[in-house]
């Protein structure tokens, strides 16, 4: 038999061994936990890297085939210019089937037709799981082309307008390795709203428009696409694929000027009044090489509604010229003086350009009248020439002052005899209604006229819209660099 001392000794040894065993077991559990966690993190990181690499290759292939994300004109809606994305137009990563792994969701345009594709892993292979056209309704063209995404819980669905329907969508999600229509929702094309089981749902649906966009929204969406691509193929690559040329930088700066003009004066449009019709808003946008250096300046004329004399019967205008200095668009000319006919014989308002010695000059004829307009008046004719990159100078001035029928003449700041003035003073078209001028040298463009001249005003607005389209196309035409 063991003695009491032996029992105490064994108990102490046992306790000591138990403590060692417990400590070793704890250390083992910690090691196993760390190992498992590390494996999970490594596997997760590996899956993410694999997904980024595979998604990046798909995006690169689409960019190579259809181009990077660009902004192009898509028409006019409610007198407002609208824009569309082309090339790769939408990039997202979403978990459609809630399995913890993302799929690549991408849209692109091919010769004006937009397609959606979804890519994901099947085993170790990254495959195309879905492809279809985006939503479009012929009876609601103003909606443009768009994508509908529905999120419920942790799953995502693609909304597709049903055939022969404008008010119902099929909802597709990932089942196994393919997308299937598993449900449906209501759609109201009047306000682009959605409903589930008859109840309006504004929280779970996302509408991604690819055309019919405002300029600001199109630019925002373009930046979002490039940001998303940078997650897969690197910001350095994305930036290198969309480097702007000097021409694109200039177009970008001029587009910003136009946007500000549209905000301040309104979009270009034809307005009709009781007395005739006139160009309204930022009505004239042209690219003109004023100084003959091979680089075009931005020429803009807007209806100046802030002028207290402005009415629909006698609209007032402001003329600006902006030049590109390699960094910014600088205003180099501003004038509120446009040409009209002498003695109010006609209500027309117009601008005059002179082509001479490889340059384009800005001309004007303006008149002021006394209490007896038939006898007391002042006529001023000017030619303004862009003499340097800093601006314009008035290089020609002709003035006639009539005081109670007695006329005095001045040419280029000096008094002139009538005979000399009649040879040199009527250099600008329509000065004091002299209509005999060289139409190859001078261009006269109407801004305000009677109803018979409506087609001329419409042609002016169309030319402005075409110029704006070209500028935005140049701005957005970012070529992929191999």
Core attributes:
single chain, 482 residues, alpha+beta, 10-stranded antiparallel beta sheet, 7-stranded antiparallel beta sheet, 6 helices, 29% helix, elongated, disordered N terminus, disordered C terminus
What's the short story on this structure?
It is built from six helices and 27 strands. With 482 residues, the protein is α+β, with helices and mostly antiparallel strands. It starts with a helix and ends in a 6-residue tail after the last helix.
How would you describe what is shown here?
By secondary structure, the protein is an alpha+beta fold. The protein is built from six helices and 27 strands. Strands 14, 15, 20, 21, 22, 23, 24, 25, 26 and 27 form a ten-stranded antiparallel beta sheet that branches. It has a seven-stranded antiparallel beta sheet with strand order 12-11-10-9-8-7-13, with no helix packed on it. A four-stranded antiparallel beta sheet has the order 3-4-5-6. Strand 3 and strand 4 form a beta hairpin. Helix 1 (4-66) crosses helix 2, helix 2 (215-233) crosses helix 3 and helix 4 (246-265) crosses helix 6 (454-476). The longest helix has 63 residues, at 4-66. The protein is elongated and about 130 Å long. Residues 1-5, 36-44, 235-242 and 478-482 have low confidence and may be disordered.
């Amino acid at each position: 038999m063991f003695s009491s001392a032996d029992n105490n000794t064994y108990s102490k040894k046992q306790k000591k061994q138990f403590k060692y065993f417990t400590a070793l077991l704890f250390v083992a559990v910690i090691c196993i936990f760390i190992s498992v966690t590390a494996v999970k993190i490594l596997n997760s990181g590996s899956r993410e890297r694999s997904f980024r690499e595979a998604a990046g290759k798909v995006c690169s292939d689409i960019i190579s085939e259809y181009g990077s994300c660009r902004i192009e004109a898509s028409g006019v809606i409610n007198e407002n210019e609208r824009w569309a994305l082309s090339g790769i137009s939408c990039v997202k990563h979403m978990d459609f089937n809630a399995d913890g792994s993302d799929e690549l969701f991408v849209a692109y345009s091919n010769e004006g037709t937009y397609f959606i594709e979804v890519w994901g892993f099947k085993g170790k292979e990254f495959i195309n799981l879905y492809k279809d056209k985006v939503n479009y309704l012929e009876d609601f063209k103003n909606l443009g082309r768009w994508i509908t995404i529905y999120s419920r819980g942790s799953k995502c669905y693609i909304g597709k307008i049903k055939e022969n329907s404008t008010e119902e969508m099929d909802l597709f999600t990932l089942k196994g390795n393919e997308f299937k229509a598993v449900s449906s929702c209501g759609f109201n094309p009047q306000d682009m709203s959605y409903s589930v089981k008859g109840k309006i749902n504004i929280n779970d649906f996302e509408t991604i428009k690819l055309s019919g966009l405002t300029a600001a929204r199109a630019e925002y969406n373009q930046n979002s696409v490039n940001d998303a691509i940078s997650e897969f193929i690197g910001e350095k690559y994305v930036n290198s694929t969309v480097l702007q040329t000097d021409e694109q930088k200039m177009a970008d700066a001029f587009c910003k000027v136009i946007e500000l003009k549209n905000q301040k004066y309104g979009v270009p449009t034809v307005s009709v009044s009781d007395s005739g019709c006139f160009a309204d808003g930022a009505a004239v946008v042209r690219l003109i090489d004023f100084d003959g250096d091979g680089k075009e300046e931005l020429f803009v004329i807007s209806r100046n509604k802030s002028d207290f004399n402005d009415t629909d019967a006698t609209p007032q205008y402001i003329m600006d010229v902006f030049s590109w200095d390699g960094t910014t668009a600088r205003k180099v000319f501003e004038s509120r003086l446009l040409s009209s006919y002498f003695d109010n014989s006609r209500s027309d308002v117009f601008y005059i350009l002179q082509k001479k010695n490889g340059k384009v000059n800005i001309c004007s004829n303006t008149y002021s009248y006394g209490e007896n307009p038939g006898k007391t008046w002042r006529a001023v004719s000017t030619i303004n020439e862009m003499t340097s990159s800093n601006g314009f100078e008035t290089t020609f001035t002709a003035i006639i002052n009539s005081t109670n029928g007695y006329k005095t003449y001045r040419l280029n700041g000096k008094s002139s005899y009538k005979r000399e003035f009649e040879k040199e003073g009527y250099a600008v078209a329509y000065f004091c209604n002299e209509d005999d001028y060289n139409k190859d040298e001078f261009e006269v463009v109407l801004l305000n006229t009677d109803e018979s001249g409506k087609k001329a005003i419409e042609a002016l607005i169309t030319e402005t819209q075409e110029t704006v389209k070209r500028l935005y196309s140049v701005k957005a035409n970012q070529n992929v660099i191999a």
